[in-house]
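[step 3/7] fold_predict: job queued, chain A
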Amino acid sequence: MDFDLSTIAARVEAFVAEIPAYASQQWFLYQIGIILVLFGVSYMLSLRIEPALEEQARRIKGNPGLLRICVALLRRTEWILFVALVAATVAIMRNVTWPSRSYVLSLALWLSVAWLMIAVSSRIIRNRAVARSVAWLGWIYVAAIILGLTSDVAGILDELAVSIGSYRLSALLIVKTVVLLTFTIWLAVTIGNFVDIRIQQSEELSPSVRVLLGKVLKFGLVIASATIALSAIGVDLTAFTVFSGAVGVGIGFGLQKVVSNFISGIIILLDKSIKPGDTIALGETFGWIRELRARFVSVVTRDGREYLIPNEDFITREVINWSFSDKLVRLDVHFGVSYDSDPHQVIDLAVRATEKTTRVETSRKPVCWLTAFGDSSLDFVVRFWILDPQQGLTNIRGSVLLALWDTFKENGIGIPFPHREIIMRTPVEVASTGAVTSPLKDI
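[step 4/7] structure written:
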């Protein structure tokens, strides 16, 4: 380590030594008092103004972005009032009383404006902890620029350094790297999401191609932004070649499943075997595909459950895609009628009842066939087509069965139930007490 503690201490001591020189002056104390009074007045006024304005802002409908900005501004009503009061006070002092001694009030004005703008703009970040961190770091940097302390702060951070071979790693370089990487990656993700939304809205591209283009674009933008950020601050990327190779081998062994799922996801998007909106069955899971991700596929079932199935399963296991090449799906419903029924009439009634059922496709007429002479009934199967399997299969089968029941009941066709006849070859003796005895009781 090459920390020069004496240089750092000298810089800090020089900065601290300048504070009493300003604080001992009477005009300095006056302006500090004015600042405190103005902030107190702003805070008291905000307690009355903010609730009324917020109630009006809540009436904004259909524009969540505008509502978010308005609420962010209203949450800082005291700062808005404080900036307005300080600006008015500085204008009065420069024109009436102390034109050359409003330096502290001017600093307070610019620092307040910077804090207000950074705090509001950071609200675009959803994570509150990250938003606060960005706001404070941004304000500290702007405050250092306003106060003219950037060179001193940069010098102190640059003195905090560690030498790794011929490479010097300083705290200033780390801060620059973190700030620049954060900004460029955030910008890349924002641009990627914006373009991805436009791609998803394109009707000329297939769903699989839209998903593939969106993922490749966002991934490429993040890699490019990180490379540009590191190059901009002077980081030699060739120094990471050996390190990345060694780490890559370890990650390759430890993240085999992750890499496998990622590659499987790319294969799925390229061969278009499944796409968003398809109705699929994988094992015991039946539902429709909601989204394709880099690691998994989101499948929503009829009961509202969302299964996150690894991409690898769609490559290595048998998948039933009900809407791969055609959305038409044929379903079978089996039923039986009594032997005293006319099978020709049953077939005609079954077809007409099925045609009247909701969701049954009318472009393809249902068919009904006699399949077997059963033990207790004439067995039939009625086959029909639907276009929306994602709406459920059990419910449409139930609707067809109910339609068959109503039609057969109206036309006097019975639906038998199994019954058996038992013939006792050995007589059964009945005792006078009502108890039943039989020679078979000991068997």
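[step 5/7] annotate
The first strand starts at residue 161 and ends at 164.
The mean pLDDT is 76.
exit 0
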